[in-house]
Queue: 3 jobs
Job 1
Amino acid sequence: MTESSAVEIEIATRRLVAALDALESAVERRRDADRDENELATRIQALGADRSRLADELDGALVKARKLERTNREISDRLDSAIVTIRSVLDTGEDG
C-alpha cells in the first residue's frame, strides 16, 4: 500500500467517523423530540380531562345557582306577602 492510499484511507475513515457522529447526534435529537412529543401528548390529554371535569363542575354550579335564585325569589315573594299582611293588620289596629 502506498502512502497516498494510506492517506486516502485515513481521510475516508475520518469522514466515516464524522458521518457516524452526525448520525448519532441526529438519532439523539430525534429521540428527544419524540420524548417531548409524548410528554406534550400526555399533557394535552391531562388538560382535556381537566377541562371535562371543570365543565361538569360548572354545570353543577349553574344548576345550584338557578335553584338558589328560584328559592330567593320565592322567599322574597313570601316576605313581601308577609309585609303586606302585617301592614294590613297594623292599619286595621290603628283604625279600631
Job 2
Amino acid sequence: MLNEFKDFIVKGNVMDMAVRIIIEVAFTAIVKSMVADLINPLISLFTRGIDFINLFVVLGEGEFATLAGAQVAGIATFAYRSFMMAGINFVIIAFVVFMLVKGVKKAKDAAEIEPAATPAPKGPTQEDLLVEIRDLLAKS
C-alpha cells in the first residue's frame, strides 16, 4: 500500500497539480496586493477619499465606525466592499489569464508555421535534365 501511494504521488499529474496550486497561491497574493495597494487608492482618488475598507451595513444593534470594530463585537455585518473587491479581483485575474492563453496560443501557432515556412530545395530544371540526357547519349 505504501508503494502504491508513493507511485501515485510521483506521477506527473499529481506533481503538475501541486505546482499549479503553489503558483496559484502566489499569483493570488500578487493580485490581492495589486488591488489593495494600487487599484483601491486610484479608486479613492476618483471618489474623493471614500474609505472602501469600511463600506458595510450593520445587521445587528449598535453603531460602529469600522468594520473591524463591528466584527470584534460579534455583530453581523453586510460587508459589500469585500464583494466589490472580489469582483475586481476576478476581472483582473480573468484578464491576465486571457492574456497568458493568448500569448501561449500565439507562440504555439508560430512554432507550427515555422517548419512549413522553410522552402523546399529546388531540383534540376528541365533544361538541366535535357543537357544531362544529351551528354549521356553522346558518351554511348
Job 3
Amino acid sequence: MDKERVIRKMNAALERELQEVVRYMHQSFWVSGPRARRLRAFFREQSRESMGHATTLGEQIVALGGRPVVKILEIFEPSDRGEAELLEECMRHEEAACEGYRRMLPLVEGDARLKRVISALAREEGEHIAAIRGMARSAARRRV
C-alpha cells in the first residue's frame, strides 16, 4: 500500500466532508415552506454524519502517520434554490463522495482494517444517495 498516496486521497476526502458539514448546515438555515422543518432536520443530520466521516478520516490519516488537513473546499450559497434543487445538489455531492471512497478501495488493499473503514464510508454515502433520491423525487412531483 502506498501510504503517501492513501493519505493524499484521504485528505481530499476529509476536505470534502468538512465542506459538506458547512454546506448542509448552511442549507438548513435557508429552507422554508411547508416541509421546512423536515428538511431542516434532514440537512442537520447530514451535517452531523459528514462530521462523523471527517472525524473517522482524520483519525485514520493520523494512524497512517499523516497530517489531516482542516480546510473547506468552497462556501455554498443556497439562498436562491428551491427544495428540489437543494436535494439535487446534495445528491451530486454525495455521489462524488461515494465514488471517491470507491476509488480509494483498491489503494488500501492489504490493510483489512482500513479497507473496512473506507467500505463503511462508501456504504453510508450510498445510503445517503438513496434517501436523497427519494426526497428529490417527492419534491419534483410536488413542484409539477
